[in-house]
Amino acid sequence: MFGDMMGKLKETQQKVEETKKRMDTVLIDEQSSDGLLRVTVTASRKIKNIALAKELLEDKEQLEDYLVLVTNKALAKAEAIYEAEVAAVAKDGLPNIPGMDMFK
C-alpha cells in the first residue's frame, strides 16, 4: 500500500514538472484598451514580446504607464493559468486521505 502511494506521488510529481514545462509554451496576449500596446507572456510568467504603436514613443509617461498596466494584467492572467494547471495535476494525483481534504 505504501509503495503504491509512493509510486503515485512520484508519478504526480513528474506530471507536475511536465505541466510546468508546458507552461513555457502557453502564450497570453494582453493589450491596452486602445490597442496601442500589446504584451505577450508565457503562462510561466516570462515576457516574450512587447509591441507598441509609434505614437506611444512621443509620450514617455503614457508609454511607461501602459507598460506597467498591460504587463501586470498579462502576468496576472499568466499566474492564474499556471496555478490552475499545476493545481489540477497535483490534486488529481494526490491520494484520498481522510482529513486531508482541508488542504485542497
Question: How does this model look, in words?
Answer:
The protein is α+β, with helices and mostly antiparallel strands. It has two helices and three strands, in the order αβββα. It has helices spanning 2-22, 60-93, and strands at 27-31, 37-42, 47-52. A three-stranded antiparallel sheet has the order 1-2-3. The longest helix has 34 residues, at 60-93. The chain is rod-shaped and about 65 Å long. The two termini are 23 Å apart. The model has no long low-confidence stretch (mean pLDDT 86).
- Please mark out the parts with pLDDT under 50 across 5 or more consecutive residues, or reply none: none
Average residue-wise pLDDT: 86
Q: Given the helix and strand composition, which structural class is it?
A: alpha+beta
How large, in whole angstroms, is the Cα Rg? 20 Å
- The number of E-state strands comes to 3
The level of helicity is: 40-55%
> How can the largest sheet be summarized?
3 strands, antiparallel
Instruction: Give the CA-CA distance, first to last residue.
Output: 23 Å
Short descriptors:
three-stranded antiparallel beta sheet, 104 residues, alpha+beta
Brief digest:
The protein has helices at residues 2-22, 60-93, and strands at 27-31, 37-42, 47-52. With 104 residues, the chain is α+β, with helices and mostly antiparallel strands.
How does the SSE layout of this entry go?
Layout: H1 2-22, E1 27-31, E2 37-42, E3 47-52, H2 60-93
Antiparallel strand pairs: 1-2, 2-3
Helix pairs in contact: 1-2
